[in-house]
Model the fold of this input.
Amino acid sequence: MQVEKSNESSFVLSSKDLRVVGESLGFLVGISLASPVDDAYAQAYRKWLEGGCHAEMHYLENYFEKRMDPRLLVPGTRSIISVAMNYYPACAALGIAWYAQGKDYHDIMRQRMTELMERFGLHGRCFVDTAPVPERYWAQRGGLGWIGKHSQLVVPGMGSTFFLGEIFAEEEFDEYGTPISSKCGKCNRCVEACPTGALLGTFDARKCLSYLTIENRGELPQWAVCKMGDTFYGCDRCLKACPHLHTLPTSEPLLQPSDELLSMTHSDWQQLTREQYQHLFKGSAVKRAKYEGLIRNIQGIAMRSLQNKTNAGDESEKKR
Done:
């Protein structure tokens, strides 16, 4: 759909038409009027930073004022268009979080969002984890879902297996989304599913296995290794525990794992070479952890398994 529009700033675009174009590109679309975030969110975010819950992700401290007001980040912004793309895989390779099974979502999302802007004649900028933008806040405000107790966006009837992106547009729309209130109620399945207690109260990245296995550049704490299970990149336990997870697998081929990735066994991972790593994860989000980080995680699991076998053998000897 090619949308014609006036060059006048007062021209108002159709939100319904935008959603139709977005859907054709694989997106759910929510639209918000650009304005500062509400005081409660700003205060909660500042308190979260002051508590050190962002671990070593110091970039989250930067550009606070711009993070709290999109009009400061991109002057002239009138509307925030939030897009969500389902990444739930039809099948998953061993040891890797669902979101990283296919190609790097940054590239896929940015290309589709740019196409959405071109097809709809939008002016502005698009972001996919590349700017100080509180994406879940804007997605909720635009009516895409609510922020669950696991701190992720929950899309009604689908769950949290969605990539998010934002378009800061100069245009205004005839209708804006209505924020969706939380439907979590008394449910605590995600909180209880977290093996490290990272979701008790305020989300604490210092305890999160996704942070520790991906963003963390230091050593893995032994307590974390003991909780990792067989997953060496990410976690997903809170997403899997959510009763709202009912989405169908993504139809996007680029988000599906390759046959080579699916064929990897525990033994194969333990013998992973740098060359194999570069081949398997060319154009993949897994490169975020780098080869050294991935090997650190894989070796941690292997050492834990060996220790468990040794302990089991010792116990067996004691019983004889």
In short: The CA atoms of residues 173 and 189 lie 38 Å apart. Residues 1-9 have pLDDT under 50 and may be disordered. The beta strands are 12-13, 28-33, 79-86, 124-127, 146-147, 153-154, 162-169, 172-173.
